[in-house]
Automatic annotation (TrEMBL):
The active site is at 229 (cysteine persulfide intermediate). Substrate binds at residue 225. Heme c 1 binds at residues 68, 104. Keywords: Electron transport, Heme, Iron, Metal-binding, Periplasm, Signal, Transferase, Transport. One of its GO terms (cellular component) is cytochrome complex. The gene is soxA. It is found in: Periplasm. Residues 49-146 form the Cytochrome c domain. Residues 1-22 form the signal peptide. It comes from Noviherbaspirillum cavernae. Its cofactor is heme. The lineage of its organism: Bacteria, Pseudomonadati, Pseudomonadota, Betaproteobacteria, Burkholderiales. Heme c 2 binds at residues 177, 180-181, 229. This is SoxAX cytochrome complex subunit A.
Length: 268
């Protein structure tokens, strides 16, 4: 557990030092920790647990998820994530990874919707199977290029809805996603806000989720990232695995096309 010891030390150092540092140097420091941890991201533990969960027969039907079709055919995990969200003929709709995972857990394993969506976001002492499964599946696309299709009319429609949501202003502050994410070099406190309309930024943002979040001690999915952004936007909390999240994810994923996928990553 040498790596873990190093990690805890670094996390503590980061926590203690951050408030006193200037903005740029905080960013530099985070980059340094990231480098130090590059071969020891705690997300590996989530990936390993996810692989085990994927391969374990469970649920009323006592089967594993190994025959789940993530879009490239039953059982193909490698490269599936860089092509999601996508249209699935068997359900006649566009699904993102977490919707598809929920579908497989219900249809293959016989879980109820409630069981299949239990604990989407883990906390200390209450780990999330979903975060682990997503970590495993996404890791199997590491190093591959984002390649999301909008060729099917429903894929195109999901993209357009996502785009609409991105620019839709509302809530107590009259914010849209675009308020925080369509300008270069914008910041809130210490955080740099990616301009998602800029290709390079969009790629960097999308290809680094899920991520082990040092501040939360958990691997967080894109689903959680968006949930948190909707909260910052003072919008109502979106339902887990809703079509709204899938549409926004489609917009983000398509904008990241061509970027090399590199997650689960490590973030503040
Ligand atoms: C009030 C400002 C605000 C609004 C509105 C907002 N976000 Fe964010 N967003 C943030 C902050 C802050 C971060 C975290 C930046 C960091 O930690 O580096 C973030 C991070 C992100 C990231 C991850 C970027 C990365 O590189 O890790 C994505 C993707 C994102 N937001 C998408 C959205 C979408 C889509 C919406 C609309 C549903 C939205 N945000 C609305 C403030 C906002």
């Amino acid at each position: 557990m040498r790596r873990k010891g190093l990690f805890i030390f670094m996390a503590a150092a980061l926590g203690a030092a951050a408030p006193a540092m200037a903005q740029t140097s905080t960013t530099d420091e985070i980059a340094k920790y990231r480098q130090l941890l590059a071969d020891g991201n705690p997300a590996e533990l989530w990936e390993m647990r996810g692989e085990e969960l994927w391969k374990t027969a469970t649920g009323p039907k006592k089967v594993s998820l190994e025959q789940c079709d993530l879009g490239k055919g039953p059982g193909v995990v490698k490269g599936a994530y860089v092509e999601l969200p996508r249209y699935f003929k068997d359900v006649n709709k566009v699904m993102d990874l977490e919707q598809r995972l929920m579908h497989c857990r219900m249809s293959l394993q016989g879980l109820t919707r409630e069981q299949a969506t239990k604990t989407p976001f883990g906390s200390a002492g209450n780990p999330s199977d979903i975060e682990a499964l997503v970590s495993y599946i996404t890791a199997e696309s590491r190093g591959m290029k984002m390649s999301v299709s909008t060729a099917h009319p429903q894929e195109k429609r999901a993209y357009e809805i996502g785009q609409k949501i991105f620019f839709h202003r509302g809530g107590a502050h009259d914010f849209a996603c675009a308020t925080c994410h369509s300008v270069d070099g914008q910041r809130i406190r210490l955080q740099e806000l990616p301009n998602i309309l800029n290709k390079t930024n969009a790629q960097a943002a999308y290809t680094t989720w899920p991520a082990y979040r040092v501040s939360q001690g958990e691997v967080r999915t894109m689903q959680h990232r968006l949930y948190d952004c909707f909260r910052q936007q003072r919008f109502p909390e979106p339902a887990y695995a809703s079509d709204v999240i899938t549409a926004v994810t489609m917009f983000l994923a398509k904008n990241a096309d061509g970027g090399v996928y590199n997650a689960p990553a490590l973030k503040r």
